[in-house]
Amino acid sequence: MNLPPIDLIEAERELCRRSFSHFIRRAWRHIIPDKYIHGWHVDAMAEHYEALASGQITRLLVNVPPGCMKSTLGGIMYPAWLWGPKGQPQHRYIGAAHEQGLAVRDARLMRELVTSEWYQALWPIKLAGDQNEKLYFENEKRGFRQACAVASMTGRRGHTIAWDDPLSPEKAHSQLHRETAIRVLSETLTTRLNDPQTSAIVVVMQRLHERDPSGYILASDLGYEHLCLPMEFEPSRKCVTSIGWEDPRKADGELLFPERFPREVVDRDKKAMGSYASAGQLQQRPTPAGGGVFRDEWIKQWSVLPDFEYRMIYADTAMKTGEENDYSVFQHWGKGKDGKIYLLDMIRGKWEAPQLLTQAAAFWDKCRHSHSGTLRKMKPEDKASGTGLIQQLKQKGVPVEGIPRSKDKVTRGYDAAPQVEAGNVLLPNNHELLSNLLNELSLFPMAAHDDMVDPLMDAINDMLTNKTGYSWSGF
After folding, report:
1. Is 29 part of any domain?
2. Do 97 and 203 sit in the same domain of this protein?
3. What's the CATH number where 432 sits?
4. E strands, 64-170, where?
5. I need a surface site. Which of 73, 215, 296, 461 has the fewest CB within 10 A?
């Protein structure tokens, strides 16, 4: 039996109210010219947005590859769903991105959706004529949709603050841009909430660096529900969330969205993107599985030491001692008579100038007579705090020489990598800082900190290869 038109309308309203995923499918054709292609990942994201709408969760981090409709779902469909099907026209939604143009694009499309004939027939919500602009529009119930750049999220307060791609892939390699994004996340977002207890924050992005906003959220335990959807399934990283959802895939390498990104397309794109970009943007981790520049399987460890020809200390000193700043590191290396180099000891800490000098001198005294072979010199990087340390150590009679730089860190890493691959670099198998060093090596150059890798690379390039870019004097 055919339902009368009025019943069809009521049925449509009810289905859209019950299911955000259903609303997405029905609304798609009214703003997107391309044919809608459904994937189970849409249901996964929709389920977590529904949890936000019900108050089951108030913080959500979504890591998903590009091209999987994250902006359309979060920045266009979700606030329109709240205003209409969910009966929350008073909802105030602030959408930000790393570029204002992207935020404006999504706001414009949401306005097109809520003013469409289809939407108005089901949910006749009128926009306020005097508050209907490109960056901001308001409805008759005082709900609004604001678009802004990530660094200019000031003024109004929202029930939902959504950050879509807080960093571009290009800017993710800039420490300044990463720190700016993290500062906005930690200092600004929470101050723009309408209700600190019930209002929601959503961050949606692809992983770009160990210290990108996602990395900061995960490392800081800020209470975010984490929905992680890699393009290819990795059983060891299977995502399970507190709302009862888990990644439905079983087989290693099973694709996220084969209806749009089949195997041949994924393989083609991975080849074009390279290992680092595909690891971050497709797999949602900053470095390739098994490590990047320094592969995990290359790392060798020692339990018994040979006799040494000589020994050296290499140091990387930090300029500041804040929580987010790098550590100062001193590493003691020996050149074995077998032609290999061995990390013998290391210390790491955040020390101001007077304490830094004390630690350096004490480490020199500790290492001086600890093994065979003469301890020749201490070699800190000749910059900022390292320059001052060099001058002070000379006054104490410690043989010290600065390391000037003429190559960037990544280039020096690739210079050093062949020696690690060849098994010529051995690490202590029972040192208390070994796990920290292994983690930095695996993630380099995308790690949150690389202070332990720097002196390791100096030791390799000085004691094994003496590559140009380390122009010693007086040695």
Report:
1. yes
2. yes
3. 3.30.420.240
4. 92-97, 127-132, 136-139, 144-149, 160-164
5. 296
68, 73, 74, 77: CA torsion to nearest 10? 160
pLDDT tens digits for range 356-390:
899 999 999 999 988 999 999 999 987 766 778 88
Per-residue burial over 99-134, b if 16 or more Cβ lie within 10 Å, else e, is: ebebbbbbbbbbbebbebeebeebbebebeeeeeee
> Which DSSP state fits 461?
I
Give Cα 101 to chain centroid, integer Å. Answer: 22
Tens-digit pLDDT profile for residues 153-162: 667 899 999 9
3-state secondary structure of 275: helix
| Pure H helices in 74-146 | 78-83, 100-114, 117-122
At position 358, the amino acid (one-letter code) is: T
In a domain, 412, yes or no: yes
φ, ψ (nearest 5 deg) of residue 306:
-85, 180
Domain with 402 in it: 296-465
The three-state secondary structure class of 133 is coil
Cα of first residue to Cα of last residue in the chain, in angstroms, is 94
Query: Which two tokens mark 36?
Result: 């809608």
- H-helix or E-strand containing 321? none
Residue with tokens 């029972």, as numbered in its chain: 430
Q: Does a structural domain hold residue 184?
A: yes
- Residues 301, 207: one domain? no
CA atoms of 304 and 302, how far apart (whole Å): 6
Query: What's 78's domain CATH number?
Result: 3.40.50
DSSP one-letter code for 2 = P
Residues 154 and 302 in one domain: no
Residues 6+ apart with CB under 8 A from 191: none
Q: What is the C-alpha to C-alpha distance for residues 79 and 84, in angstroms, rounded to an integer? A: 9
Average pLDDT over residues 14-25: 96
Tell me the H-state helices in 259-352.
Answer: 263-277
Which of 204, 223, 242 marks a domain boundary?
Answer: 223
Q: Among 290, 343, 336, 339, which Cα is nearest to 456's?
A: 343
Q: What is the DSSP letter of 89?
A: T
Q: How far apart are CA 375 and CA 312, in angstroms?
A: 6
Of 171, 197, 223, at which residue does a domain stop?
Answer: 223
- Helix (H) or strand (E) holding 335, with range, is strand 328-336
Distance CA 262, CA 336 (A): 51
Q: Average pLDDT, whole number, for the chain?
A: 88
CB 426 within 8 A of CB 342: yes
Ordered alpha helix ranges (H), 184-287:
213-220, 263-277
- Tell whether 258 is covered by a domain: no
